[in-house]
Batch of 2 targets.
Target 1
Amino acid sequence: MKIKLIMPAWPKSSLWGKMGSGIPSLSLATVAALTPPEHEVSIIYDEKGPINYDDPVDVVGMTGMTPVSKRAYEISAEFRKRGVFTVMGGIHATMVPEEAALHFDSVIIGEGERTWQELLRDYEKGRDNVKKFYRNDGLIDLETESPIPRLDFYRKQGFFLPNIIQTTRGCPFNCEFCTVTKFFGRSYRHKSHAQVVREIEAMDRDRFRGNEVFFCDDNIVANRNFLIKMCDDVTPFKINWYAQSTAAVADDDEVLRKMEQAGCKVLFVGFDSLNQESLDGIDKGHNVVEKYATVVKKFHDRGISIHGSFMFGFDHDGIDVFRKFIDFGMKVKLDAAFLTIVTPFPGTRIHERLKAEGRIFDYDWEHYDISTVVYQPANLSVKDLQEGYWWMFREFHTYPNIFKRLWRSTPSWLINPGSNMVFKVFGGRTFPKVKDKERFIDV
Ligand code: B12
């Protein structure tokens, strides 16, 4: 059987649509690895060129976040016109399976281990045997059931960070805006240490940038013992690695020391807000704003750069949040930042709440691109939130501000200047200049 796995492109009008994917999809590399070897499988990035709808193929599988879902539905429609069987899995399909089922022949809800193979077996018995929905009973055993992802598909495809690995799944927290705990429940599982080592060994690390590895765990620091042992396993590989974590790990000197020793160079930290009331309001009270500057310093002292994630437009946010962010980012020399407007993704508690309050005015998933206001904020007008965000994004990425933040900063020569320049160039092309910006500065 011939199977195509496709990553649909982001809307061209969005920041991510313009930037393109620097990191390839581990979701599709994992599904490819789960595909029995008798089938011919390929992975295609929609953003990298036109899809050949007439290429003979039996099954098309797609994944995707919410903002790409409309494009996924378009691609599926083209294949279905030609009689090809289409399947959708991943985060968006899992959060709104009934919607996805309107556009796909079948939907995989949740993890694809077990269910993908079950679907393919059913398909081989005849298309009529394939169910509309597949869902595992419970979660898979990550220690024994996870395959080595087929990263070989991404070689020579021009990805910025082609080597990716996931060692754990889940997060012990349940922040109002996040889908992770909805997807996995409050579970936190990890792969076996032997599997982590095998996955790194299988990577193509003998070329330019090949020593850089992206850990795409939801929250890599949630199991202290596992993390410490994993750091010991990773150290001999002498890789430079990047991962996502919470700010609280900065309190644990032993863990920081291990991470530094193992080659951790960048942490993507969910600070989310500089407004403690906003954090408390979204059940993220474990983040303490007063400690943020010390947190950044502690990481920097270990040679670990911080790419902070911040959201704007929470119910307690006023017009001062944009300038406060600039002041903070400049003061602590934040190496890079993921700046987003609060986005009530389907399946999240914030989506349900804002919907119940009648505050979501836009359900076009293409606008859920994390830079567009789709709901009525409580303490800001829609215009101020949108324009304040545009102003702040551009201001954080002016050449003098990039230079001041990175000068004598942590030594990640590749990713820090790279990320800032990408945000500067593509942010500049996506977000218009704001005329009366004084209203964001003089507060
Ligand atoms: C790693 C990651 C990233 C990485 C890499 C993304 C990439 N290349 O795919 C980076 C840091 C770049 C990133 C960026 C963003 N991310 Co992100 N990211 C994740 C994270 C933590 C893990 C995704 C992953 O690779 N998991 C590992 C794979 C193996 O698991 P999986 O995707 O669940 O796939 C399994 C099943 O779902 C299923 N499956 C999936 N697809 C398919 C397809 C088929 C055919 C089948 C059969 C099965 C199947 O089988 C797989 C094996 O079990 C998720 C959280 C999460 N746990 O999902 C957020 C998440 C996907 N990201 C999210 C967001 C919002 C973003 C950003 C918009 C954030 C920002 N601040 O800018 C950007 C957008 C980037 C982009 N252009 O896509 C949201 C999406 C919400 C939504 N409803 O769309 C999530 C869910 C996080 C959250 N807190 O809610 N992200």
Target 2
Amino acid sequence: MDGCFVDVSRGNCLDRLVGSEGRLESRLILICPRCKARVSVAADRAFCTDSKCIYAGQGFPVVDGQPVLIDFLDSIFQRSNYKEGNGSAIARDPSRSGLRSRLHRFVDGDNPVAVRNCRSFLALIKAQSRRPRVLVIGGGSVGKGAEGLYRDPDIELIGTDVYASSCTDLLCDAHKLPFEDSTFDGVWVQAVLEHVLDPHIVVSEIHRVLRKDGLIYAETPFMQQVHERAYDFTRFTPSGHRWLFRRFEEIAAGPVTGPGVALVWSIRYLLRSLGMGEKISRLIAMLFVWIRWLDRFCQSRMAADAAGGVFFLGRRSESALSAASMVSYYEDS
Ligand SMILES: [Zn+2]
């Protein structure tokens, strides 16, 4: 778990417990990730209510009081992950106090793009609904720059991830979201889509659970090395990211981190490749941290072609971009 362009050093969920608004199943309908029948949640087990479904008998685990609504017959995550602890398949640093987390913050800096986009997301979604319900996918910790989402008392947040934390309400695999159609006014998915096997299926699920005109905010790496070890699969150019969200109308899109940050990451990974340990590589890479200040002088088109990551803020649409429009999308941006 290192080097993600947004903060993967996991923090506590600010002052607000996501699940503090009452029992989850009384707030929204949960459905079985395998057969889509309703799910009932008990203290130590959750069950599919369709007696023909395998999860009616086997049930779903409950970790730290949160149901694990994963179809284990069709997921990279195994039931055995959720027998004890928080269910995480890799080590986490929930306090953000470890040396690696602190070095990570120093080298990567803040994420002002996410802060600005979070403000826009909140303004837009509150104009559409009096008390918007927002799903956070990969919300085991607060995404870097997403603090405004958690601090806004007018937003009902539903936090999900593949491990339990104070920021999550339930655990699920985003390829099969355990929610009915049209449940959410917005979806926030930050530094997640590189970690799923099939991002196009995940985005299709996001489209399904969003209401008409619902909002999406996504940040996904582009020029970034492998992080979170075995759980890292995909990267997106700005155009590829736009195509991923082709059933959404674009409100804003662009680079998150520039080529300078990506170059500092490359130096660190080069040092790692030369056999230096993780901590030594991070310490030496700190000598080059000044390079990321060059990002402020980068030209937008060239910076987008070499960005560390990209973002997309959009609105659910009934139509899709045409393949033919993708050349002009690059040339006009
Ligand atoms: Zn079922």
